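Final paragraph of the annual report: two paired records, presented back to back.
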Amino acid sequence: MSDQHRHEHGQHDDHADHQHADAGPRLLWALLLTLGFAGVEAVTGFWAGSLALLGDAGHMVTDSASLALAAFAAWLSQRPPTRRHTYGYGRVETLAALLNVLFMVLVVVGISVAAVGRILEPTAVNGEAVTLVAALGLALNIAVAWLLMHGEQTMNTRGALLHVLGDLLGSVAALVSGAIVMWTGWVTADPVLSLLICALMLASSLRLLREVLQALMEGVPPSLSSEQVGRALASLPGVASVHDLHIWTLSSKRVALSAHLIVESLEQWPTVLAAGRHLLAEQGITHVTLQPEPLSSPVHWLPAGDKGRLQGV
């Protein structure tokens, strides 16, 4: 690779790879705990006639699928780059997050339809059984959520965590509905609380979906501004202007950038390159490609001191 075209791979990537490796075992433990208790809730829900409990069991089953998908994605993302996939497989975690979000939306729709049916035609609910099992489910979901929240926060694990938090809210709904039925006999509380939890889960799903689509469309990460990054590069000593600036997400914790820098003198390039790398690393941009061009270049974008207008010469 020539001095005119250089890439920066630093300690950030190594650190991110280590954290991704940590995500796999956490996801597997979360999968085993969640799948095991889903059977308990399903049997009790059928016996007690509780939609909230059945809904929570259904969430746990879908969570198990999402956690399995997330664990597989975390493992696959560790594979090294190949000739066909030169950036590696980090993007597979974003795809897994997308599938998990879409899966959650389908679950929300299914539970909502069933809840409306229960409101129109109430059925008997065993409040004592619902309350007991829901309390156990709540404790389990808190443990699983804690396990995932204390690991690496990638889009993939956040997608899995979204399902677990949905289960946690579902357990709360089942617990409250069981207590209401047990003390007041108002069986409609069960589907009403299910609808409330579905609304909360849908809102969280849509927020994550927006972030996932932004990454898949190779948009600038929400935490960064291409204009601010361009201005910062253009303000480096020895840099006249910046053009062809691109910022995109490779994986949840790996941001890439490429840009052409118009330099006052090519002899200053080693110093400018080092300063540019340091500047971008401070903003979390770990995969950098910077191309120097002489000051006579006909394209100028974000020149130092400019007000942000695109200029062509």
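The closing record of the year follows.
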Amino acid sequence: MVRAFVLLLGLSVMVSSAEAAVKSKQVTYKHGDLNCIGYLAWDDAIQGPRPGVLIVHEFWGLDAYAKRRADQLAGLGYIAFAADMYGEGKLAEHPNDARAMMSVVRANVEDWRKRGIEALDVLKSQPECDKTKLAAIGYCFGGSTVQQLAFAGTDLKAVVSFHGGLVTPTPEQVKATKAAMLICNGADDTFIPAKAIKEFRDALDNNGGKYQFINYPGAVHSFTVPEADETAKKFNFPIAYNKTADEKSWADMRALFKETLGK
């Protein structure tokens, strides 16, 4: 009994030490005259540069969920930077407000991409980041954003979109894409119509695009977000958390990162 207690105590100390190694901080950067307040996470127990992952938030803004994903990635050995696409750390509580903020950014595609590239530059500037091994992931609006970065020919090894709106690229944009793409889509997501899926896949299939498109059975919009069920009830919004799809899509992302970024 004593031996078992000592073993459990030792394991507890090891876990606590591992958790304590993950550090985070706010990083302020500029988009024109706009102050953007991003979130950087890394494991300071790791020596030297390691692959970097940019994270782009849902249409709500840079919230606690996106920051948790940054912490998770840091725990896996990456340096992760969660972008602030709206500036000033703006957050929306109502879907209508979130949609309005998102629409402003999406209205100017060149500027939309620039916001993402500026955040990527912040990540690349960190001494812990291996600039030759970069990836970007995004959720909802963020999923569309990282697709835009891929189609802009950004130097990314991998791009993962979780329940993101689909961006249909031109043939030239597909050919300019350097990243391997993983599109994680809820099979029952009413926000992503079959027509949009067909147009997206046709554009990549017809122009040599390198991508995986995975439909997760029974999953709807925001299937990776545990808070989605509460939001759905509050606003009568067709979103829901799906634990199986969340875990499977995260595992699929990790497999892609292993293939493209190495250990």
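Confidence is low (pLDDT under 50) at residues 1-19. This concludes the annual technical report; the extension proposal builds directly on these records.
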